[in-house]
Specification:
The chain is an alpha+beta fold. It has 2 domains: 107 residues, no CATH class; 56 residues, Nucleotide Exchange Factor Grpe, Chain A, domain 2 (Roll), CATH 2.30.22.10. The protein is 62% helix and 18% strand. The protein is rod-shaped, with a radius of gyration of 36 Å. The protein starts with a helix and ends with a strand.
Length: 164
């Protein structure tokens, strides 16, 4: 009987050792699967982030083309102010222009500031005319066409007159 008990204990120990090995194997598989799932999830989240960035760039490109076309309309407003005499019409056109500028601003369009008597910044200004004047050579004396940025990027430089 002692031998049977010992044999049973040995068999039970072998079974327990086999079960423990199986448990360890299953734990390793679980950990590998979890790590794989976590990597796949991280890859997917990175992919989503990259796609949002690409989509935003495409949106900005399309917006840039549209805004560039609208700037011609703003130029027409600027030209119209020179020839208008009717106060009522001036007021109404002023409101329309303000609305249009407000919409462009909401979409990230900003007019490039120009300081007369300052030196042009080649990132924002383009000298298209050189004039004689009693001012410091190379400084801005007038604006020929306004320039604009879209989300901080220049979409049209300001065309300026500079002193010879």
């Amino acid at each position: 009987m002692d031998q049977d008990t010992t044999q049973n204990k040995n068999e039970e120990e072998k079974i327990e050792e086999g079960q423990e090995a199986d448990i360890e194997k299953l734990k390793r598989e679980r950990d590998e699967n979890l790590a794989g799932w976590q990597r796949a999830r991280a890859d997917y989240l990175n992919f989503q982030k990259e796609e949002r960035g690409r989509f935003e760039e495409f949106r900005k490109m399309g917006l840039r083309d549209f805004v560039t076309d609208l700037l011609v309309v703003l130029d027409s407003f600027d030209a119209a102010w020179q020839s208008l005499k009717d106060e009522g019409l001036i007021k109404e056109l002023g409101r329309v222009e303000d609305q249009m500028r407000g919409v462009l601003k909401r979409y990230g369009v900003e007019e490039i500031a120009v300081a007369v008597d300052a030196f042009p910044d080649l990132m924002f200004h383009e000298a298209i005319e050189v004039v004689e004047a009693e001012k410091t050579s190379g400084t801005i004396v007038g604006v020929m066409q306004k320039g604009y940025t879209l989300h901080g990027n220049v979409i049209r430089t300001t065309k300026v007159k500079v002193v010879k």
